[in-house]
Amino acid sequence: MNYISLLNKDLHLDNSINFNDKFIYLNRECNLKHWNSYFDNENKVQLMILGRPVIEASDWVSYEKFEENFVTKFLIKKYIDLEINEFCNQLNGAFSILVIDYKNNKISIITDKLGIYPIYTYGLDNLSSFQFSSNFKTLSDNINNKLNMDIVSVAEFLKKGFIYHPNTFYEEVKTLDNGSYCILDFNKKKIIKKKYFEVEANPIFDFEYLVKELSEALLKSIERRTLKYFGKKVIFLSGGSDSRMILANSVDSETDAITLYNQENYEIKITKNIAKSLNVKHELIKREENYYLESFDNSIKVNSGRSLPIDDHFLNLKNNKKIKTYDTILTGCYADWLLKGIALDRKQLSVFFIGKLPLYKLKKFNYNFFAKRTLLEEKFEKMIREREDQIFLNKKSHISNEIGRLFPLFQEETSSTRMTLQQFFSWDTIFSDNDIIKVYQKIPVKFKINSQVYDKAVSLIIDKVKNIPHANKKHKIGINKYYGALLYVATIIKNKIFKIIKFKKMDPVAGDGSWINFKEFANNKQIKNLWIESKNSELIKKMLKNKNLEFKEVINNDYKLIYKCIALNKILRQIKNKPKDQLN
Predict the structure, then answer these.
(1) Which of 203, 273, 444, 571 has its CA at 20 to 30 Å from residue 501's CA atom?
(2) Are residues 186 and 230 in the same domain?
């Protein structure tokens, strides 16, 4: 597992460092050694990295074959030469970085600009008690019995399936801000916390300019991660636009592709066409029938229950021999959240008989977005609302509401996918770089609501595979949104006719896409048994508005509640202390 921790307890591990009675642990399970910990003996500075901050292609000129710690050494030079704010702002990519400055008797922990790698903290206002870890369980297990359940977070998870930063299931454990650093100054005996970067909207309404800027930023970001120095590479390929864009623009012609699937379906056909057109090696890895059930408990354990295990698509692959041969794994993660408007207040358009269209319009602020929310008793609804009102200060601004929902990115609703990739794989994301962040801040809501700028930018850089249909939208990438909707409608009508005349058969669970249909999957006998057990939990029953939920009713109206209850019931068993007095 990949992790970084600073604890007040000696775990007697080989990789520990004792600094002012704080015990520092770093573990990197990666074939590449570019980001390994390094101690600069001349300046008495040690730098430890979780994740993969990237440098420019030109910065690799001095790299010598098989040289270890290259990126770490490069960053230490910058740390020594620059003031802390400037150093942090020049960092590029997704990471958490710890700096031990022996000369000045300080420790600094730095988070990336978007907050992709979480850092869980305890005792943040007291130097002697302060501890942190990138893994929630590691931290909570080492604080003995000083933790109390955060009842608002429990309610929030039951309602939404995730918890807003900086909160966790414990009142005393909080997460660090994105784009921030925390300095432990042992000479002055104090902790300094500061934001070095804020995500801010700076809209520009020149569509062609934004498309050009974004396409160039995407190409640069892909180049930084597909240079020869990044070893053997693979893209986790779906039938959408994000992963095919990375595969089509890898500067390494020997980059491979892997697709996960349940049954051969339309999406698999699309991925095969993409790989064939790009002339790349493409392997399919079939999930077993109970793939998600088998990873359910472990996902909660390693990802702190920040989001639902049904979004954890990769955990069961962590020991796969094929996957372990790769030095660099790239995915299209975060494109949806950052550049396709799914965190905006939006309403999906629909047509009678056809149903929902791939078109959206803006609507007024709503506390609920993206997915169905469960109604709780008014007391708990009020608790959640009061917490959210501290995040959404300007409810009339669509873009500020999106920023509040997104950052830090580790809080996003499907984060268990990314948490697992961080902790067990040689993974990186192309959407974390400074030039992409700059363009993100420039894209106005009107160009984001239907993914217009992103789709057009992608279409400019995927010539060979642009005309292969998008697996979900059913048409080629980058076309006019209204024309695309018409083509989508035509495909839906055709499929309905084929289904009526029994020309086309589709497995109701496997479906036509990358992931299974979890609404249908909930009919699994084991899921039903877990649901019956979890919905009768005293705390869950106390929180739910509807006390007498029938399985069929929940499946039809709020199927995610089944998974939320099962996950929460398991989480509650792990929480050491009960809430103080907020249940009465």
Answers:
(1) 273
(2) no
